[in-house]
Specification:
single chain; alpha+beta; 4-stranded mixed beta sheet; 3-stranded antiparallel beta sheet; 27% helix
Length: 182
């Protein structure tokens, strides 16, 4: 089975709510590629796909994806296209969002689940991770995504969060926490 490497960090208090999530994601990626492959990120040219998904220009066998929400940042490295998404659970107009996110027949199932907030965010992270895996971004109607395609793994980053990894084939995932300072 192919390996995927998931690295994660909690945003330090002095950086929280300062719109530094992207910068911390880049620092996490830098630490991850150094630890996993011994590369210096600043020496690796990157490009963007048709819908904006970044990739290593000269290393087509290595793929990555980054996600951040709340005070967490996650990064995955894998030998195939991959998507990762995490989301802190927040109050929202769940029905209104679901109408644009899932097929109509799924809405009552989610809203009437034993844990409707968790059910909602499970669908959210699965669909986000799927779009990040395929590189389609928001160019696709979320309601038409078939979660039967590819492989995914759900995870709970910490209480009050949902997370998902999506790829074409199963990955044996390793998980490592890193402390990131700017």
């Amino acid at each position: 089975m192919r390996k995927g490497y998931v690295f994660f960090t909690e945003i330090q208090e002095q950086y929280q709510k300062k719109n530094m999530d992207h910068m911390i994601g880049e620092k996490l990626l830098e630490a991850a590629v150094w630890k996993t492959y011994g590369w210096k990120l600043k020496e690796e040219p990157r490009s963007r796909g048709e819908h904006g998904k970044p990739f290593f220009t000269l290393r087509p066998a290595v793929h990555y994806n980054i996600s951040h929400s709340g005070n967490l940042v996650y990064c995955i490295l894998a030998p195939m296209e991959v998507g990762i998404d995490i989301q802190v659970h927040r109050k929202a107009n769940y029905r209104g969002i679901l109408e644009r996110m899932v097929p109509e027949q799924m809405i009552p199932e989610i809203l009437e689940a034993d844990e409707p907030v968790k059910a909602f965010f499970t669908q959210w992270v699965l669909r986000e991770a799927y779009m990040k895996w395929t590189g389609e971004g928001l160019s696709r109607d979320l309601r038409k995504i078939s979660l039967e395609e590819g492989w995914y793994e759900l995870f709970t980053p910490k209480e009050g969060y949902s997370g998902a990894v999506y790829a074409a084939f199963p990955l044996e995932l390793s998980w490592e926490s890193m402390e990131i300072s700017l």
